Amino acid sequence: MTTPSNNAPTYDDPHNAPQDSEITRVRSLRGPWRWLLIVCTALTIFLCVNQQFTLKFFIGFTPLNTEYYYGLLLVTLPFVFLVFPGAANAPMERVAWYDVVLFLATAAVSVYLMLNIRKAAELGWEFAGAPQRVVWASYVMWAVLMEGLRRTGGWSLLLSILPFTLYPVFAGSGWLGPLAGQESTLEQAAAYHMLSSESLLGIPVQAFAETVIGFLVFGSALMMTGAGKFFINLSFALCGTFRGGAAKVCIFASGLLGMMSGSIVSNVLTAGTMTIPVMKRTGFRASYAGAIEACASTGAVLAPPVMGATAFVIAQFLGVSYAEVALAAVIPALLYYFGLFMQVDAYAARHGLAGLPRAELPSLRQTFREGWYYIFVIGLLVFMLLIMKRESHAPFWATLLLLVLNQLFNRDKWNWETVLKFLEVNGRTFVELIGILAGCGLLIGAFSMTGVISSLAGDLLRIAGSNALLLLAMTAVTSLVLGLGLTTTACYIFLAILVGPALEQAGLNKMAVHMFVFYWGMLSAITPPVAIASFAAAGIAGAPAMKTGWESMRVGSIIYFLPFFFVLDPALVLQGTWAQAIWLTAKCAIGIVFICAGIQGYLSFVGNLVRAGALEWPIRLLLMVGGVLLATPSGPLLPWSGQQMLIMAAAMLLLAVGAAFVRVRRV
Asked: Are residues 67 and 185 located together in one domain of the fold?
């Protein structure tokens, strides 16, 4: 990072934006291995483009979808064992011999199964009658998938998934109770896992193959053409002079970057290196600055148009377009960022934190002059997603337009070295994702094979006494606990299978249910003891990690309420009329203003509530409770009607505001 003549923070080299893998133990491949990764990444993109655009490069041969999926596994999955070392003491400067063995074994078994998958589909081998050699190949693939899952997701993910992949073998056991289902032999389970489109080749890999690849390519192209610099300078130009301006820049910049990257940790590392030092310089304590960045970056997986990989898996689960999922996420994301903004505003007002001098900020005109074409690229992406409904094509066309405009108008034009770096960065991302998604697919296959889901949904409803609100609370707690040890995607898949059907049978909206599970699984990013986003931000801020984690929970507290809001009334995820959505959004936004005032102890147009003396905390409590009642949509799950909730909210808020006005103004 450098500070140019106008003192606006920017990048030395926009091609070097940090990646998630930079905070994990990842081997940087060199020599022939690096070139092989680059070639296989190019092949991955080629296979995807050929399949999505029906280019028919394979003359006289049209691959089945399952053959295409195995082709992608062939050029990505083996690299898990090269990029991710097998142990903490494994060599980082060279590839160990056992990693080479695993690489070759994975490649060989992928080729073999790919060559047999068409015959398997014709003869129904996934259900019965698979030849012994195919069964043995399936055993090998099963083993390498579990090892790949361990290396990419850690022991916690492996120990959560592995028992369930074996579950069909023991499903007939009486001691399993409500989880008892149709039992299979080990051979049948292996063949089903590797040949069925419900397991390894199921929803997670399908999402990766159909949509995720394109959006990952688009996101990395954006960052490597300098979009990070543009979005951050734009944020400084627009928000820098406001009170608490550095923190508001952080929220705005991280939101813009997150909309394009869909990655929480890389968002922290990219924006945080610039926003956190400026926040500290303008008076924010280190842990609070880190918490703001962590919460703002967490919105990366919530904010369309480019959300995290889980959003694409949701679309596959629901059988809807990705555009529909992205639209459903718009209002919750806006309310979340609005809540962060109001938290920061109240905190800055309470502590007298001014904005940045205009002389230290970049010029808005100059910023647009240097990066105007990013607006056109994003516009094309949104147009193709929402109007043309071409979600598999949209990111590729947007990437092509971006690269053309970059070569025409950007001072930092790409050269061949940049192209190789671009492929290498994408390759590492593909490898990490496929290692997690492929292994998690077996979780879906296990429950599909046993047929236990329908009966389990009924059992869960009976446990909850058919009380949907209790079932939601159980799901929220389970999601949060699972999210501490699993990736967001793995946590979502796990609960979408186990709890999703029960919530749907309880009469809740399907989109709202899946977004609810998604949100709660993601909350571990800012919730101790894991809180990976908070800990990454704490490292930049030089603050205690756990303290930053607890601060993050406080700053991002609105996100713990939002999932309940849109389940209570699905209009907040655009599953209703526009009039309902607008009314509920406005009501929630007003409620959030009062909630933030109570949390931070500052009420706009009244002042610092510390001057209320002994009444400070009663007033703050009334503001928070009244704000929650105002923001919460009414519905059949709650014991009060919408009118009753409005009356209770109005009574509490009028009492709180009146008492605050009298006590604070009098002082």
From this structure: yes
One domain, residues 536 and 462: yes
Same domain, 500 and 599: no
Range of the domain at 356: 1-15+226-362+451-571
Q: Report pLDDT for 4.
A: 37
- 186 and 246 both lie in a single domain: no
pLDDT of residue 454: 67
The mean per-residue pLDDT over the stretch 389-397 comes to 90
Q: What are the two backbone dihedrals, phi and then psi, of residue 10, each rounded to the nearest 5 degrees?
A: -155, -175
Interhelix angle 488-498/416-450, rounded to 10 degrees, is 20
Maximum CA extent, the chain: 86
For residue 560, being part of any structural domain is answered with: yes
Element (H, E) at 420: helix 416-450
CA 395 – CA 306 distance, rounded (Å):
9
State the helix-helix crossing angle for 364-386 and 213-224, rounded to 10 degrees: 170
Whether residue 137 is found in the same domain as residue 6 = no
Return the residue matching tokens 């009414």: 634
**Both 549 and 586 in a single domain?**
no
Residue 28 has pLDDT above 70, yes or no: yes
Tokens 């361990």, residue? 150
Is 648 buried (19+), middle (13-18) or exposed (0-12) by CB count in 10 A? middle
Q: How many residues does the chain have?
A: 667
Q: What is the CA radius of gyration of the chain?
A: 26
Beta bridge partners of 608: 602
CB 572 within 8 A of CB 585: yes
Span 572-598, pLDDT tens digits: 999 988 999 999 999 999 999 999 999
pLDDT bracket for residue 13 (50, 70, 90): very low
Instruction: Look at the chain and report how many structural domains it folds into.
Output: 3
Listed ranges 350-354, 541-545, 622-626; the one with the highest mean pLDDT:
622-626
Same domain, 627 and 649: yes
Statement: residue 667 has pLDDT above 70: no
User: Do residues 128 and 192 share a domain?
Assistant: yes
- Contact (CB, 8 A) for 555 and 308: no
Q: Which residues contact 400 (CB under 8 A, 6 or more apart)?
A: none
> Closest Cα to residue 399, out of 420, 416, 422, 421?
422
Average pLDDT of the residues in 503-516: 90
Summarised one tens digit per residue, pLDDT across range 228-238 is 888 888 998 98
54: in domain: yes
Tell me if 445 is assigned to some domain. Answer: no
